[in-house]
């Protein structure tokens, strides 16, 4: 299991369309992936879970991956967030 903290920089955070892109990317990995904000931890492959966290611009989150492609999952999701969650 590995984890990494990252700050969301896009102007709308992880809401609606950006959250959908994030979830699609998370679902492309075999590993289980979680998103943690404060005391809350949700499945990164669940739209309702990610929206529940209410992640806005400049918020820090922790991505946690566990499985056969965990390092690739963390790298790919962090790159997506760093690029502003664009298509």
What does this structure look like?
- By secondary structure, the chain is α+β, with helices and mostly antiparallel strands.
- The chain has a single domain (2-82), classed as 2-Layer Sandwich (Histidine-containing Protein, Chain: A), CATH 3.30.1340.
- 36% of the residues lie in helices and 26% in strands.
- It is built from three helices and four strands.
- Strands 1-4-2-3 form a four-stranded antiparallel sheet.
- Strand 2 (32-37) and strand 3 form a beta hairpin.
- The model has no long low-confidence stretch (mean pLDDT 94).
Mean pLDDT: 94
- Coarse shape: globular
Looking across the biggest beta sheet, what order are the strands in? 1-4-2-3
Number of strands: 4
The CATH architecture designation is: 2-Layer Sandwich
CATH names the topology as Histidine-containing Protein, Chain: A
- The radius of gyration is 11 Å
What name goes with the CATH superfamily?
Answer: HPr-like
Termini separation? 28 Å
Question: Counting H and I runs of at least 4 residues, what is the number of helices?
Answer: 3
Q: What is the helix fraction of residues, given as a range?
A: 25-40%
Question: What kind of sheet is the major sheet?
Answer: 4 strands, antiparallel
What structural category characterises the helix and strand content?
alpha+beta
| Poorly predicted runs | none
């Amino acid at each position: 299991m590995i984890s990494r903290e990252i700050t969301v920089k896009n102007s709308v955070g992880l809401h609606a369309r950006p959250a959908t892109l994030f979830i699609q990317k998370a679902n492309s990995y075999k590993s289980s992936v979680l998103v943690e904000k404060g005391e809350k931890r949700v499945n990164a492959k669940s739209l309702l879970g990610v929206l529940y966290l209410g992640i806005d611009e400049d918020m820090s989150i922790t991505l946690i991956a566990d499985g056969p492609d965990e390092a690739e999952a963390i790298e790919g999701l962090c790159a997506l967030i760093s690029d502003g969650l664009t298509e």
